[in-house]
Specification:
Length: about 400
């Protein structure tokens, strides 16, 4: 039994931030009901290719995007634009602990499904709204997309090739970090609100913003600006305050070297056959190496190109110099550490057969996470939920289906 096996979550969210939050709660044992549009479902069901293939190698309707954020959930299809659909949501909310939604500001109020409406049927509900810019401020009504938030929140101003590199330009992250981090913060906020409810009996409203989150996770970068008033710059794969602390080319690929002190720098250049660099007056300590970064890095790149990636990793690990390869995803999932940690999972799925998933990284000794269910097919659990949660009989469910409510 997971730590949250006593918690019921009604997930009205779509795409990434909300579903990521709900999946975290589900991995910890919560019973999560995912509400989707009849016939269409979550937008991400159609975001592909790639789509998962069945045992015969035939492509299914299960997109890789949807798969990664919807395990351990049950899917019900409900048309919330119709009064009968809204009533089903209210009844499900009445016996849920948590409601998660990521509609535009004010949209759910039109259907009587906003916080003020649902707390009338469930006074202690924890209600979490996730939007691009939050519920207040001049941008509140704007749609928020991760890519735009990465730009507005400063991330792209410090990501990409160094500012003085010819042809350099800002770059977004390879994964939707604003969405994912907002989902992570939202799940933490929900857990805090549940603890508060358990102590006081009070529910509460949680207002999560992608822009707020993006600025917050800039961490030392945001702090550096607030501390000094100096606008941070792009440094590519290098550190602005430590040298050498960046990627280096080898004869057959790239490695990362993170020499955080003078001793590690000496070991780095010694195993590379250039020990004299550690005694050069221009490079004897980190402030000097930062000052003379350009000429030193050029010399180090000449040195690292003389050996293969594998040779460098072996030499540096033996010398206790922090280092690592830059793996593609084939190399990631073939890595012995990744295999030992059971990161890749195989679970049964009704259309795919054997579905591969990435395990939750949360490893609890007493209440471990587990994959109880593969990501659901569209509406897979509609009848089950209506029977078990709302005590509807087959006739009532058939009538709802005939009317297009479910």
């Amino acid at each position: 039994m997971g730590a949250l096996s006593h918690i019921r979550v009604l997930d009205l969210s779509r795409v990434l931030a909300g579903p990521w939050c709900a999946q975290n709660l589900a991995d910890l044992g919560a019973d999560v009901i995912k509400v989707e549009r009849p016939g269409a479902g979550d937008d991400t069901r159609h975001w592909g290719p790639p789509f998962a293939k069945d045992a015969n190698g035939q492509e299914t309707a299960e997109s890789a995007y949807f798969i990664c954020i919807n395990r351990n959930k049950r899917s019900i299809t409900i048309d919330i634009s119709k009064p009968e659909g809204q009533e089903i949501i209210r009844k499900l909310a009445a016996e849920s602990d948590v409601v998660i939604e990521n509609y535009k500001v004010g949209d759910l109020a039109k259907y009587g499904l906003d916080y003020e409406s649902l707390k009338k049927v469930k006074p202690d509900v924890v209600y979490c709204s996730i939007t691009g810019f939050g519920q207040t401020g001049p941008y509140a009504n704007r749609p928020g997309y991760d890519f735009i938030i990465q730009g507005m929140g400063g991330f792209m101003s410090v990501t990409g090739e160094a500012h003085d590199f010819e042809g350099a330009s800002p770059q977004k992250s390879g994964v939707a970090i604003a969405d994912i981090f907002t989902g992570m913060y939202a799940s933490s906020a929900i857990l805090a609100a549940i603890i508060h409810r358990d102590h006081t009996g009070e529910g509460q409203y949680i207002d999560m913003s992608l822009l707020d989150t993006q600025i917050a996770v800039m961490a030392n970068i945001s702090s550096a600006y607030l501390t000094t008033g100096e606008v941070p710059k792009r440094w590519g794969n290098a550190s602005p305050i430590i040298v050498p602390y960046q990627t280096f080319p080898t004869s057959d690929g790239w490695i990362i070297v993170a020499a955080g002190n003078d001793g590690q720098f000496r070991q780095f250049v010694t195993v590379g056959g250039e020990a004299h660099l550690a005694d050069n007056p221009l490079y004897v300590n980190n402030p000097l190496r930062v000052q003379h970064r350009k000429q030193l890095v050029s010399l180090l790149e000449q040195m690292t190109r003389k050996k293969t990636k594998g040779q460098w990793i072996a030499l540096l690990e033996e010398a206790n110099v922090p280092c690592g390869p830059i793996n593609d995803f084939k190399e990631v999932f073939e890595n012995e550490q990744v295999i030992a940690r059971n990161i890749e999972l195989n679970v049964p799925h009704p259309t795919v057969g054997n579905m591969k998933l990435v395990a939750s990284p949360m490893k609890l000794s007493k209440t471990p996470t587990e994959v109880r269910m593969a990501p659901p097919t569209l509406g897979q659990h509609t009848e089950e939920i209506l029977h078990d949660r709302l005590n509807l009989d087959d006739k009532a469910i058939h009538e709802l289906r005939d009317k297009g409510i479910i």
